[in-house]
Amino acid sequence: MDSFLTYTVLGLVSGAGYAVAAGGLVVTYATSRIFNIGHGAVGMVMAFLFWELSAGRGLPAWAAVALVVLVVAPLCGALAERTVLRDLGEAPSDVALVVTVALMVALLGLAQTLWPPKPRPVSPFFEGHGFHLGSAFVGAHDLLTVAAGLLVAAGLSVLLRFTRTGAAMRATVHDPGLLALFGGRPAWTTSLSWAIGASLAALSGILLTPVVQLDYYGLTLLVISAYSAAMLGRLTSLPMTYLGALALGLLQSYTVGYLPTSGAFTGLRPAIPALFLFAVLVFLRSPQARLGRLRGAAGVAVASSRRAAPWAAVFVVAAAVAAAALPAEQALVVALGVVYGIVMLSMVLLNGYGGQVSLAQLTFAGVGAVVAARWASGSVLSLVAAAVVAAAVGALVALPALRLHGLYLALATLAFGQLMDKVVFQADFAFGYNGALDVRRLTVLGVRFGTEKAYLVLSAVVFALVGAGLLALRRGPYGRLVLALRDSETACATLGLNARLARVVLFAASAGIAGLAGALMGGLRQSVSASDFMVFNSLPLLLLAVACGVTSVTGAALGGAALAWLPKLQAQFPAAGGLLFLVVGVAAVALRSEPNGIAGWVFRFGRETVAARWTRLSGGPSPDAEPVDVGPVEAVGHAPR
Amino acid sequence: MPPGEPAADPAELLDPVAPGADGLRVSRVTVRFGGITAVDGASLHVRPASVTGLIGPNGAGKTTLFDVVTGLRRPETGAVLLDGDEVTRAPVHERARRGMARTFQRLEAFGSLTVRENVLVAAEIHATAGRALGRRAARARARDRADELLARTGIADYAAHRADTVPTGTARLLELARALAAEPRVLLLDEPSAGLSAPESAALAGLLRGLAGEGLAVLLVEHDMELVMGVCDTLYVLESGRIIAGGPPERVRADPRVRDAYLGPGEGAA
Amino acid sequence: MSAVLELTGVRAGYGRIEVLHGVDLDVPEGSLTALLGPNGAGKSTLLKTVAGLVRATSGHVHLSGVHVNGAAPGALARAGLVTVPEGRAVFPNLTVEENLRLMTYGGRREAAVRETAFGRFPRLAERRRSLAGSLSGGEQQMLALTRALVADPVVLLVDELSMGLAPMVVAELYDVLAGLADDGVTVLAVEQFAATVLAVADHAAVLVHGRIAAAGPPRRIGADLAELYLGGAA
Which of A17, A225, B55, C230 is the most exposed place for a label (fewest CB within 10 A)? Predict the structure, then answer.
């Protein structure tokens, strides 16, 4: 009974911290319809900044809190809104998602650059002060956190319910144009809400640091807890959000207290928010799909098989030449790049064609690696099994989010990735607790791919086959279907397509490709562990894919190469540290303007060169002249508001 | 309409349900959003081999009724019958497979695909739905059907253009061609002529008559009265969510309640 | 009587689709002018062009003698042009009171705004804590019109006030507009639902296929309407 009280207090304190974070999420979402995946990361950076100011620079704690929460965080929030987030609420949901993921990765990179890993003990505010409640000790910091949670919930309620600014915040998301007609300033209102959101993220980060510790990832993942709580309030109701946060805090605390600390339950605690989120997702009602948007997605011209085949051959030959020329360790790096490229091909299918975002493609690769290690290791069958099992797991992940749209699916994948990291991959049937698995290298039809060099060629062949397969798919009926589904799920359904099922199949296929890549990676490395497939590593992968061109196979090849090469560069210039993550984040944000990424530039450059040559030769117009543009189809009668 | 007076319910007066080819029947459908009743006990019957018009002032609930019929929205009460079978609770794609197709007032063409691909994908969905074998042959037929429909709707010239670059009128015809690719028995058209030129509208009228001639039950929401009067066999008028009149177009047009709905009470008779 | 709002040869549209093919229209000061026409004739586009939401590709829009082609909507609003756009110009996710609170951007105090709203439309007082989206269409339109009442406009543009409303309610709303015109506000009301507005309007114009097909006293216009609307009267 005594311990029950202690766990209750602990749970309420974490819950109050989550409530502060969730309140910030609700405010920004309610005013901009952008769900900020980087919300937790903002809190993380601000918590580090607080540590720097107080512990590092000797500022009194209260002054440091005030400076961070009331000045720096709001300014950063408003700045981020003005520079990268503005109008994203109107963009396709996958674009908004990727941009906030970029924000998150950039902040992670920034934190690791400014504050390189080292122990940074953080003591609670007013340490030693407090009182006893029965046998439980309630610290002053705990009280402060609970009070902050209550104050924030009450303050936000008052702001949104009883002030003109609050009314304007809720009005602007519905119709900024109408708010302007009323005489309000929608742009200013949105900036303000992001400032408040960032401020609350900072506050929650600082308050929860003694619980979570000053940890890049722990604090960043607060977004899942905050999101689960906010989801209970349907991203609008602050009281429900608050209750949800408390419930989550308590659940988590009791889990720690009463579940056995060994076996399958090890590491369950950090996964509670993820499980909670899944539960919420299952019971959530689907929001109304957005109707009346006739705007196609970006895409590059799809190469015909006759044009793609030579390039595939060139790719394989180049890999063979590289394998022959490079020393083994460099061949390993290049081969790794190709394998990452295959993971990115899975993103081309899911995101580039399908418009859905997964934040856990590496986790599916991890599933593939486990299968390849444990079943028929060394034979081609292991590759097939890896793809099939990963696809099945993918379908399982997509199912709860089946009725829901892009954002929810993406968050479900993030939660799934965390669950796998903390629980499943640690289990004995997977990698084992902090363990590694040996994967045997393949023997295909008696040919043994025993070296890194051989694996480089093998990976290149697989990449070429999967890439060519994707292109064939894209050209064919299924590709049309995937694009149609992306443009209007509603129209697809009214034509007789079971749209939800189709989305699950797409997601599963993408997970299957990632699983195949995981199996190859296992064989290449010979020994793999859970840390190779951490969900956080999926994020730079996604961003690089988008930056290099997630709409094309070429982009995936470029992205894979970049991903393999970046850590090398990082190793050569250690000072750069997390800076590279920062670069990736910034690049992905900047590339918002070029949806086809670097590959898009490459294609355009190539086309222009060809066109110029053609013009020189024939003196006539280029063969690639665009068909006559007959103007946009903003239907008359419902022009943009 | 004064309260208490039973709503004119023309569909109820029509012949009893004949199983098989009965077309579309909407029976006493009511839809509420929040506190607003968008559709209020509306009933109508769209017979096979006919064009049935549904007119009414803006905001009368016409598109909401379409959403109920095609399954995008659940009605609070009432039923939707397709060829005598109740489909009120069937999912959207299930109704489509049973022969229902529609276009959208706010366009829902596939913007990333070309005009031809838009129609083709619809034909392919239709040809391969629930079919595990013979998909290849079905797809070949789908291609022929798509090309035939592009020609029939008069948008073949735009076949290679991306759908998000064509004029509104073309996009509307594209939605019509796409709906036809699903080989429906009941076709719901939501303002298909908006954005069309006069000759295009006339061609559309001819096309609609042709479709009815092939046995389709066509329900047409339209503001262009010339088109409505020219092609409809039956006309219903929806006002504030209620069907206030129904019958042959000439009779409906002469109905004082209809003139009131359009022109305001009293003055219409001037 | 001078024209406060004057359009000469205005062409406008969306992208390359031209909707207005040269519109000439004078709206005299302190009058209630009805702009009628069948659906798709370009009425809403005309209003949007005046409000600065759609830019005229040629021709001129003069507001109180000032050439305002290309002026920003915000600038026009500050200069006294109040627009009540089509389709319930209120925030449905906000309560009646919160909608009224947002109308204080016009400079009036919240108490004064409420007094005006509840005095003119007692039904709004009863539903002050309801979400605007849950009001009946008529009540929503009353709420929307309150903004015109408290904003002290020079010119008021109203788009399809009657959309989906019962005739009784429409008549009540148009009485409000007529009252505003009597107070010297220049009102341009776009309507499909002709009879009620013609009963209170000082002038009327009919837009067909992007051109003014007829203009003049409401009575005369009313006589021709059935022809234009139903394509040949029965």
Answer: C230
Residues in contact with B94: Cβ distance below 8 Å, sequence separation at least 6, in sequence order: B71, B87
3-state SS class at C3: strand
* The residue to which tokens 């909608």 are assigned: C99
What beta strand segments (E) does chain B contain? 24-33, 36-46, 50-55, 77-82, 85-86, 100-102, 186-190, 217-221, 234-239, 242-247
Contact between A189 and A169 (Cβ < 8 Å): yes
For chain A, which chains pass the contact test of at least 3 CB pairs under 8 Å? B, C
Residues of C in Cβ contact (< 8 Å) with A181: 73, 77, 82-83, 85, 89
User: Which of B58, B194, B268 lies closest to C192 in CB terms?
Assistant: B58
Kindly state the helix (H) or strand (E) to which residue C155 belongs, with its residue range.
Answer: strand C155-159
Give the Cα-Cα-Cα angle A32, A91, A111 (nearest 5 degrees). Answer: 65
* Three-class SS state of B244: strand
Residue whose C-alpha is closest to residue A561's, from A551, A549, A579? A549
A402's tokens? 């089946």
CA distance B7 to chain A (A): 31
By DSSP bridging, strand B186-190 and strand B100-102 are: parallel
Query: Is B70 in CB contact (< 8 Å) with chain A?
Result: yes
What CA–CA distance (Å, rounded) separates A448 from A442? 6
Residue A20: phi and psi, rounded to 5, are -60, -50
Query: 């670069």: which residue's tokens?
Result: A583
Cα–Cα distance, A508 to A385 (Å, whole number): 14
Q: What is the pTM of this model?
A: 0.81
Q: With an 8 Å Cβ cutoff, are B96 and A480 in contact?
A: no
- Rounded to the nearest angstrom, the minimum Cα separation between C83 and chain A is 7
Q: How many CA atoms lie within 13 A of B245 on its CB side?
A: 21
Which residue from A220, A186, A169, A194 is spatially nearest to A75, judged by alpha carbons? A194
Closest by Cβ to C231, choosing from B225, B259, B266: B225
Give average pLDDT by consecutive 10-residue segment, chain A, 641 residues: 82 92 89 86 95 90 93 94 76 76 85 84 78 79 90 91 91 83 86 95 92 84 83 79 90 82 64 80 57 56 78 91 89 92 95 88 95 86 94 90 71 86 84 83 82 92 95 90 89 91 93 96 90 87 84 89 76 60 66 72 74 58 37 31 30
DSSP A213-253: -S-HHHHHTHHHHHHHHHHHTTTT-HHHHHHHHHHHHHHHH
Residue ranges of alpha helices (H) inside B37-114 are 62-70, 92-97
Count of other CB atoms within 10 angstroms of residue A324: 11
Kindly determine whether residue A490 and residue B167, on different chains, have CB atoms separated by under 8 Å. no
Of B91, B111, B108, B109, the C-alpha closest to B100 is B91
Phi, psi of A481 (to 5 degrees): -60, -45
d(C-alpha A473, C-alpha A494), whole Å: 23
Closest residue on chain A to C96 (Cα):
A167
Model confidence at C182: pLDDT above 60? yes
Assess contact for A368 and A387: CB atoms under 8 A.
yes
Other C-beta atoms lying within 10 Å of the C-beta of residue A248:
27
- Chain C residues with at least one Cβ partner in B under 8 Å: 16-17, 38-40, 87, 92, 130-131, 133-137, 160, 162-167, 170, 192-199, 222-223, 225-226, 229-231, 234
Contact C157, C82 (CB under 8 A): yes
Distances (CA, A) of C129 to A31, A553, A623, B217, C133: 21, 56, 64, 46, 12
User: Tokens at residue A610, please?
Assistant: 């060809």
Q: What is the ipTM of this complex?
A: 0.89
